[in-house]
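Subject: sequence -> structure tokens, single chain

Hey, anyone have a minute? Need the predicted structure for the following. Not urgent.
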Amino acid sequence: MALASSARRRQHASHAVAVYIGRDQVRAVEVDTRGGQSAVTRCGQAPAPGDAWDRLGETRPQLVQAIRGALAAGGITATHVVTALPRRMVTLKYARLPHAPAEHVRGMVELEAQQYVPFPMADAVIDHQVIVDDADDLTTVLIAAARRTTVAELMAVFDAAGLHVDSLSVSALGLAEHAAGSVAPVALVAIEPGEMEVAVVGGGRVLFTRAAALESDAAGGGRDRQLASEVSRSLIAYRNEFRAGQVTRVEVAGPEAESAAAREVLGSALQADVEPLRSALFTTRPEDAGAYAVAAGLALEAAGGGLSRINLTPSERTERRQAVRRRFATGVALAVTAVVLVVGAFATQAALTRQKAERSAMLRENQKLRTVERALKEVRAEHSELVEDYSAVVSGLGRRLPVVDAVKALSDATPASGGVYLTQLSFDRAGAMTVQGKAKAENAATRMVSALQATGAFDEVRLGYIGDAAGDRSRPRGAAALVPGPSPLTDLSFQIVCRLHRDPPAGSGPGPRATRETAPSDEEGVTVASDRRLDIRQ
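Reply:
Had a minute. Here:
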């Protein structure tokens, strides 16, 4: 998972800077990748102590100056770089392991590495790259191991130079990047003073690597023959280990590879075409291909995701840096949290102040509301009492009989000649009125009936009884005589029955009202009595 993430980061990188410490030079290269095309844009070098790799701790100040000088010579500014260990200081082996999850493969690699690593495993930094072959039951794994002390001293050099090492690879793997697109096996040879390295590449993978020391004090012809011998031994070892195809092309790089005589000796010894290194990275700077081949390959691997994924940076160093980043991130998070809390406290205080003011205003308004509600309650209580009193009065005076209008109409209908003497007037709840009296002649009673009908105060008027006064039995029980004593008119007695009109005629008065004369009695009817003669004249 970590390798896949690293590969994605490399694929998205726009440029990468590689610094490689050689035998006598420190070389720095910057590679830009745009639109899928990579090219060397800047490069520079500075002299370094010849035995620097054997005395990294002692030569640290000189190496720091050389690294800074190489970057300055190329006009390169960077804080993150990639670098590599020489092939001779790293154990590289291919192993065949069963297919398994990544964490299981890591455990098998550590067990497998014990067979190859020539120093204690406690002092080893190990990394591996899985090459998946679906057609096989086994997986090919490239295992790399280096001394932890050497790696730590190299990291200290770059730390002193103010540079962060993103990846620590192997020089031969950086050299192999220049033949990444080759299908047939191709041997790349990097020649340094006193050292040479070989990388065989084919089918999109690194097949074989080897490093060997050369006698730096040998004469030109002897040095060339020694170089040819070491390259031949390397290719023989490749064929013996892989049983793969014959190498038909050899490309050489490095300052010592510019000699045509050396290439001729190599061609004769290897029976193959020997050419200077051809790399697409140096299309604009072909003269730098030989000297910067390894550094440019390392930068290409970091910028574009090349053949190798080996990274020998110690895990504890990465974990320490991650811990520092986590602490920094935690500090930033705490600072941001503190700022948020302070701002939140101010906002909370402001909100509380606003809420307090709103609460005070609410309490005042609630007090006003309660006052209004109390007043409303009192008004409603008074209204209820008034309604109850009104209802009681209306209920008590529910007999809405137009007594006054009826008496007025009765007075108007009484003959003016005085031939009628009224003795009794009574009402009932249904509005029926009964008038009893005495008449001097029959036509006097009938004229009074006609007069009552003409008033319009009654719905119906009829003469209920007329007869001799001596045999009068028409007086209702309980009815009171209007005038006590003997009647002056004793010829005829009569009874007129009327029904009061519910809608009194216009101009007949203010309407029905209760008076002392119409106050309800406990009996079914209403009886009006008078001690005077009802002889109302207009």
